[in-house]
């Protein structure tokens, strides 16, 4: 504030010592109080930002997906052994296609005598259902059978995760050139490197990445020479002993450059094996691995494999459910509000209805789930997991919200408008439908949309009426089994594999986009029709 | 009647009526003193009376200003309005009474002291009656008493009779002694003035009647009095 | 033909027919009224349109009632008929199995691509079912049409110059509106009835007191139904949530309504509302993925501090604290927007009054605005508590499953809602104590939140009345 | 009660004497109004003349507005209100259940304390009444009704170029005149005004008063007012209400210069306390 | 000045002033007619004048009622208030003028037709002057013209001179011919009445001055006129 | 502008002439007020006398309330308002940034259009101001302050038995008097009143006017009023505002009987179009 001396000069009797002392204290309290408010808002905003960042961070990887661009020879013996050329039969023959893919992969990457574990490692880079699109494509154009076609085959989610930088912390180190090498691919190789410094650097990196606190397992290094990959077993001075992993089966020539990929975790502690990493790196070096927009997220239905799971069925399920909800809650809610606000006689019954509606709005949503389970499913015998029941439950759930919002909108219309209409000889109903309702419409619609948004995000009651069921098909109608987005999110979030996490986050973002859209509409409505009386 | 919620309003009204009563008292004393000056040929007194008119005039200006102020700022209604408008009339009437007294006193200065004693006596008697009438009129204003006001109205007839007889008497003296024509004319004017004072006292009573009842006193009779001086034509 | 009727989407067709009938009836009624008025429509008691509406109403209302009844009872009639026609041996199966048998028939019959199963009796019954459904539909439609025609002529016959068509139409509208309002009440009745009914069934098997005061909960195994640990978990988490939400929400509201410039307000308010718009399942995911690990790490760190006994904090991967914190964040906007409302409802004149006395802003807020808004704020907090108690997804995902009583917020706790979800998710039979216990829990939850809500709503109402 | 009755018959006869020849438009007989258990109006009888302005004055809560609202049965819209007694208008008792209040209100227009135009265009504000009552059969006829009503309300010149602008965009005084025009549009016979100027400033008030004075030539106008001065300015007859009773009724001039009843005098002169 | 928003207010004010002007016109004609009746000894005309006073009185009652009505119902302020209060004074003055004319006419009835022609001529001349003064006063009321009002005030001196000379003249006649004392006294009273009418006309002018400016005309001079009749004492 | 200035100097001098001896309490010099870009008050200078009532009148939107709120810097609480010019009170310019509005307002009390008692007991309503300003050091002293304030506001007799009852339970007129008592309690020197009777009926209004008349003996009172009649009744000085300018300022009696300015006359006589 002002200094007393300065104040004394021109403020006359307004500033006395005593008053100034009090004032200083009072202004201090003022500043503190204001600070609390700013802090509170700051915390709230930080929480929101953290939430969004953590989810977007998680989700970002799920929106792209790595595929292997693979020239596949469609062999009839695999895909259509009976030569029926029947599209359905071909499409259903997933195992045939799978076998074909595996055999061709094996041809390319494995030696004849590769043992079953290595085979499994190779096949494990793709999920069984990854061939589904190939089967469908082939079934659609059977003439391609017998020819070579290029397909994008989805890599398994762990590989995908590795490619996106997940699975294990890692570092690439250039180790210099080979001075001398001995040994064989089968028994192990010992290389002597040209520069001790480079080896020391490799060793330092290994130590650096080894985490002592958690697993107490040392970091490992995969070595690449040309296109061949080895695993570093031991290192002594300038010499390294390696075992072969993948790639051309030959010793690195002298003077060949060696690179190391140091991984923090050994393969026992991660979901991707050393060999799979080697293959992946080879394929990547060949430019055959591409990152593509993960359309499966939108086009596919649920799946037990994260890389194949999509939200399509849930989106359609949500839409169907919302349709039912809207058809129940909006008209009934508006009419009920009109009745209560405009027509209901003011008596005990009406006030009971009022209290009841207000209370209903605050009843936990899960109780509505119990209601749905008891009444619609147990008592009325409607099927589980269908949008009709879900919609009815959510309809009842948001009904009070719509009623309250509509009533608020109706109350906001000044009574003078009603009396004005009555004054020129309009009936009560005319005054309501000609004047009050049109004026309240924007508010009512805003309330309805906000109610629908709430229904769209609602999860708990739907769990209880079985909408958590696994649904692989896009539902056709309100009586088809289906799930909805939030339930899908819940289900995915409980998935055991780490790949479900980004997937869940991605589904959340899909849901949030819908919600944001609805709220935007509500805001626009409100802005557009905002009215002052 | 209860006081106004805004006591300043009541105060102002009361102040106004006190002022009027003061004016009235002054006028009353002027009547008596003027007639005494005539009777005793006391020129000093006459000059005093003349001087006193000035205060009545000042009081009237003040009262009138108060009345305008009341109407402009207080918006009196109903009884208050009538009281204010009545006060306006009263002030005018009393002021006129003052003027008339002054006139009598002035005429007294023109007399030579050896007028017809009978006529002078008549003037004195008449002035007593008029003074009494004025006193009663002011009294009924003070008490807002319409019965008394009616009495005042009736008293006016006597005064008119007084005047008529005095007029005739004086005319006779004049014819008898033409030298006295000048002073007798003054006496006649004095009587006439007294008669006018009586009329004004009557007007005061009527104003009181209006203030209290909101109605004018009934037409014809009042009016004939308003016009004032038929008496002498009889 | 019966078969086609059995499959056609008759509902839509009927809808169209009824709508057409309504339009026609409206037109006829209106024309007739204009005829009666001979051009002087202002002489009519009601305007011609209302006569039209009246006839339309008279036409559809009876048809709609009949169709509604058919929707309600049509299927049971058909089923009763089928049941009567089935051979004796099947009828002898007993009610439950008979019902299931007919379920299968109806399911088969209504499948569009149904093929013969080979079971002659079943196929015949299935065909018969289709026929009966078709027949009943024809009958219902005929009845509806008849009723509509009757209504139409009745409506026309009522029209006259003095006829108060408007009043009648408005009565109809009011009745419709009333029905809608009644649905809200029916919902509550439905909730109470279903919860009470199932809960009573549960209490017929499990002692009420051992449920309410028991401290062991092993519902999945159907062994113990002592709900105290659940209550404890519920309230502990709600308490933690309020610890976060109450001060932050309240201070935000005060800052926004009293201090913030309109610009800041227009930015911050929607941001806070955004918090309210995020589905709880998202919060659950956030709690599980982000907050729970931090809580756990912090607990581990604290455990590692000197002078802290080993295992002082449970440091579980899911914890009451994680759920409570996130729930608190979720509830902030409830507290802030409700408080904001009540604070704004305090008339500006009161603030002006205080400012004019020479009070500073914070003095005004603390001594004038808040005391005036206090009942409303308390109500807001109560509603928030009720919300916290009933919140499901966050606790389901982040609080854990273990029914235990421990003051350690880093331990995993379970709540009423978590247990309800756990007990009722997936296919469940409605006859086991395990399932029924969920309803008993639901009943308790309902009652508790009801009490909070009722108190809060009452306070709010009183408060509103004061300033309106 | 008895005293009041007695007094009333007296004032009624004097009111009649005041202007013997004016035709009676509204004849209220023994009106009682109850709000729940509370009696708001006690046995009021009053005859309102056609083609003149009758003002109701009295302290707040004296029942003047309540009584006004009996005349077009606006009290029907208040749940707890109960009205007994008879109100004859052109020989028909409007409190008869057979009378449709909606139709009655088209004959007894009302203007309220706060200007309350519909948030629609000026044109639609006026046209609404005629439209629901079927008073105009075509666009041209409706245009005429609108213009006439606005002219009568003295608003035509001010708004003729913006008939489609919203009525709520007008100034307070204009809004109130719009409401009057709206009431006029359904050709009422009686116009009730419930403190029509209490929300307006002195200038707008004067304009409304001027309008009321003009309308008096065609309509029977009843006005409730807070301000005695206004009653004095605009009305020909004044009724003074107190505690739900009619204390005095008569020519405005007489009421303001020479009221019969002490309580009227006290109220008018500011002695009520 | 622009009209009031409430035109009825303007109408009422205008109606009031029209009424006053009508009264004024009537009074003017009465002055002329009364003096003509004296000059030509036309008793019919005299009786007609007496009768006409009744209409002035009625108009005054009406004007006064209108004024009370205006104050009670319209609450005039500022200029309007002054106009109304001024009108009240005007009405009173004009009414008095009417009374005085009636008095002249009545005295005319008492004459015998053979009075001193010179005196009668004097009355006639004086009445013309007075009538002219009144006319000018009314004119300045109509035009709210304060310059004209000031002229009217000046005119009063002439009339006082008129009166004084007439008074002395008549006194001389009376002494010369005592038989004519009666009728000459009447003539004196007539002159006195005319002088009073002049005073009232002056009052009208002063009222106009007040109405327009809101200020009373400056004190002393005016007051001496109010008291009226010093002239004769000279 | 120029014309106005010219006129103003003229009226100011005349206002001084009206009552030469009264001491000046508030001296406003060249006040301008802007709301955003809109100028609400244009160069108003005005001297307000101590121990008298000064009324501000004018049509709505003329700036009279805005100007009033300059005197205790209530415009500071409106974001967009900007006030320039100097207001001297006892020699100190209160618009000086060094003056704390919080202290200023304890010396310049304010009463608002709608009675706004705090939702506390009657006692606490009065005690609030003294408490925040530390004007009473103990319970006994505070009791005294409360009683004195209530007495001065003429409310003591009516409420002394229910000091702990909520202030909002009083009638409208009593509430307004409570607000006046509350303003008095911090011993202000100036009391501003912004249409203090516009929400009250004539009887309550008369009581407030009576109170204002009594308070005049101790305080400098400035009142904004909608009603010319009220200004006429309560004030000694009247200022007429129009379109944000001061048109005329002078003795109330003169303003209402003989205003100098044509616009004042037109407004007062109801000729404003």
Automatic annotation (TrEMBL), chain A:
Its main location: membrane. Residues 315-521 form the ABC transmembrane type-1 domain. The keyword Secreted does not apply. Keywords: Cell membrane, Membrane, Transmembrane, Transmembrane helix, Transport. The keyword Cell membrane applies. It is a multi-pass membrane protein. Pfam families: BPD_transp_1, DUF3333. InterPro entries: DUF3333, MetI-like, MetI-like_sf, Phosphate_PstA. CDD domains: TM_PBP2 (cd06261). The chain crosses the membrane at residues 35-56, 312-340, 360-382, 388-410, 505-525. GO terms for molecular function: phosphate transmembrane transporter activity. It is found in: Cell inner membrane; Cell membrane. GO terms for biological process: phosphate ion transmembrane transport. GO terms for cellular component: plasma membrane. Belongs to the binding-protein-dependent transport system permease family. CysTW subfamily. NCBIfam families: 3a0107s02c. This is Phosphate transport system permease protein PstA. The gene is pstA.
UniProtKB/TrEMBL annotation, chains B, E:
Its main location: cytoplasm. InterPro entries: PhoU, PhoU-like_sf, PhoU_dom. Keywords: Cytoplasm, Phosphate transport, Transport. Homodimer. NCBIfam families: phoU_full. Belongs to the PhoU family. This is Phosphate-specific transport system accessory protein PhoU. The gene is phoU.
UniProtKB/TrEMBL annotation, chain C:
Its main location: membrane. Signal peptide: none annotated. GO terms for biological process: phosphate ion transport. It is found in: Cell inner membrane; Cell membrane. It is a multi-pass membrane protein. Residues 231-456 form the ABC transmembrane type-1 domain. SUPFAM superfamilies: MetI-like. Keywords: Cell inner membrane, Cell membrane, Membrane, Phosphate transport, Transmembrane, Transmembrane helix, Transport. The chain crosses the membrane at residues 12-29, 50-73, 135-154, 175-197, 227-251, 271-292, 312-335, 368-389, 438-460. Gene3D superfamilies: MetI-like. It comes from the Bacteria. One of its GO terms (cellular component) is plasma membrane. GO terms for molecular function: phosphate transmembrane transporter activity. InterPro entries: MetI-like, MetI-like_sf, Phosphate_PstC, PstC_N. Pfam families: BPD_transp_1, DUF3708. Part of the binding-protein-dependent transport system for phosphate; probably responsible for the translocation of the substrate across the membrane. Belongs to the binding-protein-dependent transport system permease family. CysTW subfamily. This is Phosphate transport system permease protein. It comes from Henriciella barbarensis. The lineage of its organism: Bacteria, Pseudomonadati, Pseudomonadota, Alphaproteobacteria, Hyphomonadales.
Automatic annotation (TrEMBL), chains D, F:
InterPro entries: AAA+_ATPase (IPR003593), ABC_transporter-like_ATP-bd (IPR003439), ABC_transporter-like_CS (IPR017871), P-loop_NTPase (IPR027417), PstB-like (IPR005670). SUPFAM superfamilies: P-loop containing nucleoside triphosphate hydrolases. It is a peripheral membrane protein. GO terms for molecular function: ATP binding; ATP hydrolysis activity; phosphate transmembrane transporter activity. One of its GO terms (cellular component) is plasma membrane. It is found in: Cell inner membrane. Residues 26-268 form the ABC transporter domain. Coiled coil: none annotated. Pfam families: ABC_tran (PF00005). CDD domains: ABC_PstB_phosphate_transporter. GO terms for biological process: phosphate ion transmembrane transport. It comes from the Bacteria. Keywords: ATP-binding, Cell membrane, Membrane, Nucleotide-binding, Phosphate transport, Translocase, Transport. Part of the ABC transporter complex PstSACB involved in phosphate import. Responsible for energy coupling to the transport system. This is Phosphate ABC transporter ATP-binding protein. It comes from Henriciella barbarensis. The lineage of its organism: Bacteria, Pseudomonadati, Pseudomonadota, Alphaproteobacteria, Hyphomonadales.
